[in-house]
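User: Continuing from earlier, I have the next pair ready.

Assistant: Great, send them over.

User: Here they are, in order.

Assistant: Folding the first of the pair now:
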Amino acid sequence: MAGCSARAREPVPFPALRRRVPPWPIPSFQALSTAIAAQVGTGNIVGVATALVAGGAGALFWMWISSLLGMSTKACEIILGQRYRVKYSESMDEYMCDRSFVMKNALGWKRGAVVLSVACFVLGPWTCCVQTESVTGALEQSFGIDPMISAVVLGVTCFVTIAGGLKRISAIMERVVPFMAVCYILGGLGILITNWSIVPDAFALIFKSAFTPMAGVGGFAGATARDAIRYGIARGLYSNDAGTGYGIIAHASAKTDHPVRQSSWGWGEVFTTLIVCTVTGLSIIMTNVYIDFPQVDSAALTTVAFEGAYGPIGGWFMAIAIAIFAWTTIIGMYYSCAKSVNYAFGDTLANRRATGVYMVYYMIPCVFFYNIQADALWAMTDLLSAAYVAITLLFIYSQQKEIFRLFRDFWDRYVPAKERGENPPPVTFGTLDEKADKEAV
């Protein structure tokens, strides 16, 4: 279907890059893997650890609530991404959408969209310092690797991957993310199985601490119910990205026959992060490390929990898992930030040049600012997440009629037609170029 309006400016033509074939969409599962790559990372390991240290065991309960409520929010984001995505064919060959595209194409706020895109691609890379800090700390603790070496290797390998564009990113994420998620979940389940007798007590503590203050024990200063809510929801949002608008970006490039069908992946996406966060939280709570080791925080806390359960092998496994999760998250986050660059420069030759320069800028915080204090890094990411959530909720509220229209169209018309053996045409969007629309017709 055609989009809403023409682009603000015509792209600078350069025939060598012009293509006759439609932009290359990626399969739904690859889009899902790219999205999960930006979520199943240190936020599910380090974020949970910092939430438990600051908010007590009850923080895990509020992370669950955040995830359950976020499933519908993520589905709405994906519908918006599919509905207001655009086709770039001059500077690149790709479907794309992000918050700025929605702000302009759905709300008509062109100036606000430019400001938002600049803020996103300038500030976005600095949230990845959380990932590098976690990797360098885990590898130094488990293998004695110098943090600078870890940061450089991480930066170089990430740069090589993102330089390959969406095809390389999505192909690698499709293979790495599911494998590492399954391995990590199995490792956490091992801790639960070996300590099965205290699983009921762990859940009782989580529910009790979610609503009542948690007494200080040993080196743990105790946490109030307010702390549990604050840190549980904040880390929950960071771990599953529901409501932050990343679902708009990651799923816009997916090939699907209807936006609502693609949105169903969002439920599984958030549920996956919920499982990983639960495994991390229960591992820390059941081994009691967040109280017994008050001097340990960030990624090291989960590492200590696995070392207590499996010995040195557990520590080595966690260090490797954190490194791979952080690596995939940095790559997945780059794709999200790069869409803001694409919006700011449009479908022009300048966009190709700017994207190449941005790859270098994106890696600078990851490589050179890995030693910033974890508390400061999490405070910054919490502020950015809160801003993104406010913007995304505005989109969902303002476009609720269009979201429900597509939802009803899928379930009341499209699905019944499929069940009757009919072949209804796909409901797809993808261009705001009026000339291209006319040629397609």
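And the other member of the pair:
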Amino acid sequence: MRLYFLTIFTCLGLMASGCGSSEDLSQKDTDPPVRPVRYIVLENITQAMNQSFSGTAKARKEAVLSFKVSGTIESIPVKIGDKVTSGTLLARLDETDIQIEVESSRAGVKTAQADAKAAQTSVYTTSSNYGRTQKLYENDNVSLSEFEQARGDYKTALASLEAARSRVTTEKSKLRAAKNQLMYTRLSAPFDGIVNAIPVEENEEISPGSPVLTLNGLGSLEVQVNVSDLHIAQIRTGMPCKVVFAPLKDEEFEGKATEVPYGSTDAPTYPVTVAINSEDTRLRPGMAAEVRFDLGKAGEKTGLYLPPDGVGEDQGEKFVFLIEKGQDNTGTIRKKKVDIGALTQEGFLVKAGLKSGELVATSGLQLLTDGMAVKLLD
């Protein structure tokens, strides 16, 4: 009997449990899905007058040095980080072969000069003989053939002298070239600076024009930034600006635009060069920098601004999803067309269609539909 009642109660419990599950499942099927969504509350803000552009600092004066002749690097008496003054020897090639050329050219000059001296003596001799023979010929004391022979010898001597002088000039040119080649085996600093890179080593064969050493000028730095076509017309040469370097975020340095291009070639940005008016030794080439230009009233506007993620497009028309707030951080989506301006540092400027205080969805727009229930996320 006890087993009979236990079985009945167990069955009733299972039936009650089964009925409850069916009712809950039916309830879940009828409830609409609630999608979580992030949002912003629109409010009037003023777009900052300062426009910032990122870039990297580099030495205003920089030179990649190379030899004008080929050869074997004999020595590099400096190392990376050394400060050098103008004229300091930075690298030297083995000059043995070129020194031989210099001595050979010097000997060639001496030989040519000796030949020119002998040719000059011959001119003097033949000139004297030609003058004497001419007088004798005029008095019929020598034959015509003797006179022509004396005249021919003189002209030959003059031609030999001219050729000898030409050889002297040629040999001297060779000597100068050999001396220049010898001078080109030494690489000196063209200005005061710091050795920044040495991509070669001693005893390495080098060809003319191959980079041997990079020298950066002391103190003076510059930053090149890419300015968009929205702001380039407001920036001019000599315009002051503020520069902040990543390692020194709490300090501002004075700068000015030194190069502002008129046109752009392959992108809607313009490379503007900014000179840093500081000799602070903490500033180094390669540091990340932010350049801030004060664009004045032309860069200031108060209004509602939409983040790019909150704006959608449907058949060429811009729209947003407004949120009608309900209870317990819930709301309902309403699709609305808007008229917006160009993208600024604060976002898209709203021209028409929205007002301050409205809630706009800013994430997952492709999953939202008009009338959808959503849960608001901070």
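Worth noting for the second one:
The first strand starts at residue 35 and ends at 41. The chain has three helices and 25 strands.
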